[in-house]
Amino acid sequence: MVVGVHRPTQLVIDRAALRHNIHAEVERLDQGSELFMVVKANGYGHGAIQVAQAAKDAGATGFCVAILDEALELRAAGFDEPILILGVTSPADAPLMAAEGISATVAATDWLVDAQAYLDLAGTLAAPLHVHLGLDTGMGRIGFRTVPELTTAIDFLQAHATTLDFEGIFTHFSTADSPDDHYFRQQVAKWHALTDGLKPRPRYVHVSNSATSLWHAECNDNMIRFGVSGYGLNPSGTAIKPPYPLQPAMSLTSELVFTKRIAAGDSVGYGATYTADQAEWVGTVPIGYADGYERRLQGFHVLIDGQFCEIIGRVCMDQLMVRLPHDYSRGTKVTLVGENHGAEITLQDVADYCETIHYEVACGFTSRLPRQYRN
Ligand SMILES: *Cc1c(COP(=O)(O)O)cnc(C)c1O
After folding, report:
1. pTM beyond 0.85
2. What domains can be seen in the chain, in order of their start residue?
3. Judging by beta carbons within 10 Å of its beta carbon (0-12, 13-18, 19+), is residue 108 exposed, middle or buried?
């Protein structure tokens, strides 16, 4: 998709906010513990390269991504820190990952066997493939679930130490963002059952996403995978207060491109789902569901001149209409996410209205929206 640089609609990313959040977390870590910034999905929509640089400036010493292409994007941009791919990759890409010094998550021994075959085929390696074993302690997504499975994998790694480097072991919690820690405790117990007495202990032992590090920091081993809170978002939504103020880094702004006065009985938008009861001013904003601003946001609001203005009629693919308290000139600023004259719309507000989570809203903004960086 082309980037809409000639349209006055953009995501504004505050790098100082990113650095503030990440630095605040780095400061809370025990000595010798590291923060890897999670920059998957284009840095949760914020721009992976810009976020990675801000994270590095704030004390992050590595990165996590979801897929190999995201890791390669960081390498191509010149980042030489450790990068862990959190998802399952293809064993056929083992030589490429080894060559690029990219760490693979491994969730099954047959993956190691296949990867070993590809590494053998590739011939002499500059360095072995770094491997983090993923343990499924209750997330139910990927990973080893029993001690015998895990032991088999570790034995295989040790038998192939020239090509495979046992660099890390980790798990992922599914309820660390909940005030009820019952299931979390069960996962912690499972983690200990799987890893207590583990020999050898790899370089990185890690269990914490943002929520775990914010509210269960005693579980952090020597690395955390810090994601959503680095972007200034509370992983629990509003359920639990973070230990320090998080500063949201993302705003979404546009401008009025057209205004008009409509009469009582006039309708607005596809399906004529909105009909004015009385004469009113209507403004048009150049953003729509093709930008990731969802169609179901009809009835929600934007901020203009510090005032909440309702989105009337259906959100179109590229435009939406709002009711104005009075006429405004073309070019008047519209804030869809962020602060405007002391009033604020958060990603959480948008997510609540869409009955989803802010993670999905942030990474749902499409590449048509330019990302503008401040600070
Ligand atoms: C996405 C992800 C994270 C980061 O989670 P946040 O809630 O954004 O901090 C950490 N670990 C794994 C395995 C992930 O998939």
Report:
1. yes
2. 15-231 (3.20.20.10), 250-374 (2.40.37.10)
3. middle
- Give 131's strand partners: 104, 166
CA distance 327 to 50: 38
What is the Cα–Cα distance from 375 to 370, expressed in whole angstroms? 17
User: Tell me: the pLDDT tens digits for 179-212?
Assistant: 999 999 999 999 999 999 888 899 999 999 999 9
Residue 124 DSSP SS3: coil
Q: Is the CB of 206 under 6 A from ligand 1?
A: no
Q: Contact 34/242 with Cβ under 8 angstroms?
A: no
| CA atoms of 165 and 129, how far apart (whole Å) | 6
CB atoms within 10 A of CB 310: 14
Coil, helix or strand for 129?
A: strand
pLDDT digits (tens, 9 = 90+) for 160-185: 999 999 999 999 999 999 999 999 99
Ligand 1 within 6 A of CB of 41: no
Active site residues: 40, 270
172 lines ligand 1 (CB under 6 A): yes
Q: Which residue, judged by its Cα, is nearest atom 10 of ligand 1?
A: 209
Distance 226 CA to ligand 1 centre (A): 7
